[in-house]
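Whiteboard transcription, Tuesday session. T.W. wrote the structure tokens on the left side:
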């Protein structure tokens, strides 16, 4: 029988000592989580870049999702934001509201996953806070560093800029649908692959590598169309070659199945891909492709920025009724 936290005489101090102190890597500024605050040493040559995100139960993840998945999501949403700003991640804080169904095993799996990801991305936890609530809610603030000239804005694109997308889009959408009992004839191997994309998103860290070639960038968290519109900022438009939108072969098969009731437009309005969409001058095309190849990153040129407002397909037809994810809808 699993032991719930409510079944044990617990305190915030106990939880920190038992599960979370291993995440500070004994960095001097963390005070080993024995202060109410911390400090972060960054080079004088760099600017500090800050981003924060919250994920909540039954909105960003399901209550029965593995704790490892929830850990990966809270890091991914922040890491992709830093990447989109051309920043290298350094450290983060973590605020967690947990419910009475969280047990020792959950906390162990959650923090062990955080520890593995910290090593992968060379980051550490500065500290945070804990509280109890009816539903799980996790907020993380990330700190990164970048040279001033390489910090990327979201909406400084220029007419005739190429529009680029990293990785593949849409697999997370199918994974979400499958987690919600999506009725479709997909073989078990592919089902697991799609679900993994939703449960364990991976941030694309190409922004820091390519910052000097980029004019504007955004991570695709609220949907391709929605995040593209944020880049265009009601000032410009875009011409998109829909056939160049990068999709996995498994997803292409689903789109070709008339019985699937899955459409490209639905995919492009969905978020949780955590790939990058960015614009760049055409003269940097070869350099970007070379850099992406060197770092084993899939990179697709899917269109260009135009003067006329709106998003148009390759036949110059306006794409209507495009939307993005919104927590309040």
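and on the right, the sequence the group agreed on:
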């Amino acid at each position: 029988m699993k032991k719930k936290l409510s079944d044990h005489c617990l305190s915030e101090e106990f939880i920190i000592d038992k599960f979370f102190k291993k995440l500070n890597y004994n960095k001097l500024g963390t005070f080993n989580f024995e202060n109410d605050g911390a400090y972060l040493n960054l080079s004088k040559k760099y600017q500090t870049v800050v981003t924060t995100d919250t994920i909540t139960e039954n909105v960003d993840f399901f209550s029965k999702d593995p704790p490892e998945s929830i850990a990966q999501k809270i890091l991914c949403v922040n890491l992709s934001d830093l990447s989109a700003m051309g920043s290298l991640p350094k450290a983060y804080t973590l605020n967690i509201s947990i419910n009475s169904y969280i047990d020792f095993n959950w906390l162990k799996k959650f923090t062990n996953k955080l520890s593995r990801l910290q090593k992968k991305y060379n980051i550490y936890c500065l500290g945070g806070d804990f509280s109890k609530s009816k539903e799980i809610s996790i907020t993380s603030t990330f700190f990164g560093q970048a040279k001033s000239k390489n910090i990327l804005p979201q909406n400084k694109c220029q007419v005739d800029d190429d529009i680029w997308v990293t990785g593949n889009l849409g697999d997370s959408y199918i994974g979400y649908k499958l987690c919600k009992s999506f009725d479709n004839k997909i073989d078990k191997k592919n089902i697991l692959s799609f679900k993994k994309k939703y449960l364990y998103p991976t941030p694309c860290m190409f922004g820091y590598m390519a910052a000097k070639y980029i004019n504007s960038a955004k991570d695709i968290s609220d949907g391709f169309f929605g995040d593209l519109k944020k880049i265009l900022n009601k000032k410009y438009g875009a011409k998109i070659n829909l056939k160049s939108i990068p999709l996995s072969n498994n997803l292409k098969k689903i789109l070709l199945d008339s019985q699937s009731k899955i459409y490209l437009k639905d995919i492009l309005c969905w978020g949780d891909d955590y790939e990058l969409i960015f614009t760049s001058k055409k003269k940097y095309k070869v350099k970007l492709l070379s850099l992406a190849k060197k770092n084993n990153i899939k990179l697709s040129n899917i269109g260009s920025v135009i003067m006329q407002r709106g998003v148009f397909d390759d036949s110059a037809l306006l794409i209507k009724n495009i939307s993005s994810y919104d927590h309040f809808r």
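Someone added at the bottom: DSSP finds ten helices and ten strands in the chain.
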